[in-house]
Design a protein that fits this description.
The structure holds 2 protein chains of 2 kinds. Chain A is mainly alpha-helical. Chain A is built from 14 helices and no strands. The N terminus and C terminus of chain A are likely disordered. The longest helix of chain B has 36 residues. Classes of the chains: A mainly alpha, B alpha+beta.
Chain lengths: 297, 528
Amino acid sequence: MSSATSKKSSGMTMASRRRLDTALRLLVALLFIAYALFPVVFVIGTSLNPSGSLQSSQIIPRNPSLDNYRSLLNSQTNPFGRWMINSLIVSTVTAILTVALCSLAAYSFSRFRWKSRKRLLQGLLLSQVFPNILAIVAVFLMLQQLGRYFPMFGLNTLGGLILVYLGGAIGFNTWLMKGFFDTVPRDLDESAMLDGASAWQTFTTIILPLVRPVLAVIFMLSFIGTYSDYLMARVLLSSNQQYTVAVGLSLFIGQQFGQRWGEFAAGAVIAAIPTMILFYISQSQLQGGLTSGAVKG
Amino acid sequence: MAVPAAEGTGGRKASRFSQDGSVLGLLVKVLGLSAVVGLLTYTGWRLVGDGAYAFAAAFFIAALLFTLVFVRQSTVPLRWIMPGLVFLILFQLYPIFFTVYTAFTNYSTGRNVEKPAAIAAIERLTYVPEGSPAWGWTPLQADDGSAAVWIIDPADGAAYLALADEELLPAAEVNGLQLDESGAPVSMDGFTVLPNNQRFLFVSANQGVTFGDEERGVQVTTSTEARQTRQRYVYDPALDAMVDQRDGTVFVSQRGIFTAEDGSTLAPGYPVWIGLENFTSIITNPAIRGPFFTIFIWTFIWAFFSVLETFILGLLLALNMNSPNIPFQRILRVLLIVPYAIPAFITVKVWVGLLNPVLGVIGSAWNPGWFTDPFWAKVGILMVNLWLGYPYMFLIITGALQSIPGDIYEAARVDGAGPFYQFRRLTLPLLMVSIGPLLIGSFAFNFNNFAIIDLYNGGGPPIPGSATPAGYTDILISYTYRIAFGGARGNDYGLAAAISIIIFAIVATVTILNFRFTGQLEEVSENV
């Protein structure tokens, strides 16, 4: 920094050092992308391999074909298309209702002040760490009972499964959302209120448009969570026609691991498509929405 | 102090927030409220009718809360939470309550109905008393395929239509009845008279079936004779026992199962309150205690290392990518979080395939016992969880890094701090403040991560000599699940519920401690 020459030379080494640094970082990134994608590429390769067993699987099959996809989709005993539709229905409905229930609750926690607010928020969180799987006996008996009065919410129905998922709608999600709501300045609500807006109008016209990223994130988390759940669905759904794709595919591969590998891979590729699309769309929202609740400056 | 946007649209604002709809709004509110409360009350009422009192109570509590919150002015903030809360009460809190109650009972296979239902089921059993007169009978088949008989009482010659477990129908009430001259039916509405050569088959197909109810009914005993049956067991409330009407044997209720002196029992049984027995059996019963502690310790190791390894890799990648000079940032980041976007039930199975010792790409090349060796199975499952879990850490750490203000690094550089020192003294502490709660969340999640354990190897390899089915990679939740729902010794819901309460206590304690620690709760209470 003292003389012009030394500044120039150090500038050059700085530039090359930066280039080296970037190259190294790029190398590390590529290395880990290979790690991340290896199983994925492998599944795609297997799904295109007509011989379809685990034994003959190669990353790039010698004579790729869509045989596995065809035999999976045409299978009479395993209605894969039906499973996909069931999963999409359950996940979409659950995710939409979760976002609705959650944003209402988060608005209250963020904007109103009342006596047991803190208690209730803690309680919501604690109720979420109860190992749900063990409450499954109760849930099973409940749906059995409910199904007598409301057949569409009984055992082995998608409606019943959605109800159960909605039990956990507010909880962790509300906490995440509240953090994001807190980052919206209260001046905005107050000026709207001064203009004569009711709390409901403030919520729908001022707050909701501003918190869209976190709505997207909760939708995505809820969708993926529901879509991937196989335990609750496995216990509550009992007929092939009602299975979600998680249950159907898991049971499908279940015993005949070796022989059904190709078709399973084809099913896995198709089953991963909805979440991948959703993920790609909401990718930019995700980063902001996921962290600002916890990382509020 | 007005916000510019509000000023700019000030003129339109007044109309935008007009209260025109308030009458309609009120109507909608009242109708919606009554619909919800009505539905909840109706369901509760139906549940009471079916004797499901506890579940009914959950519905009534929800209805009451709903009404109170919407009627009282002081509970306006709660109105917003109520919709979600109703679902929480019905489908989360009630099951938790039920589980806690179950933990103090011996609810299990063979003891899985309430006491009145168990008694009713046993009282439906019948027997054929000795010396009971023989009835004449004719085999019938209902249009829905079920069996029925036409019977004639030897005492008075009266004829009846008899269906399984239903009251006898006198001949006069049977529609379209046609009899031949001997009094045997030829045809009637809704039933087909079976030919005589079917009688023998009919008897063997309807062994033990009572045609008629327990008051008055018959069983077909031979191809020509039917005998009147009697209710076999009668409940005696004074003894709390079932008495066998045939020989007077008394079956006394023992822990929910009616048992005779010679040890024979009647099914079904019902769960009874056994206090802390489930909890003490975890400590005292060696068959349960043995695997329990092994599993208990592994559960902690599993959850801890799962968080640690994913955190470290996520942090390294986040730091690595946290440079503006890297080209194709966006696409590289998306590719790095691909594992997060594919449902775990798929990827765990794929990894299982890759590690398969005979057929898998990795397993066939290098197999230290990915599924059979206790140690390497644990390593394998941690490896799979690393792949599944690092993208989440990468995401949240990246977000946290970006929110750390740059000027503190400036200050540190001026003070002569090197990059490593900066990381250790600035980045890491600031990071921990913001993502600490998420790490605890991740710990709690992995503590109960049933899916990966079950999908990887079903908890195996099995621990030899344990009476309850248990494996080396089993964590508490998967071990408990197997006690509750699987296994040769039947399902022991009571014990499973007791363990789930212990799990809950552990995770809840960790969560609460964490909140104390990071001051997250204080933040909740402060006005934002």
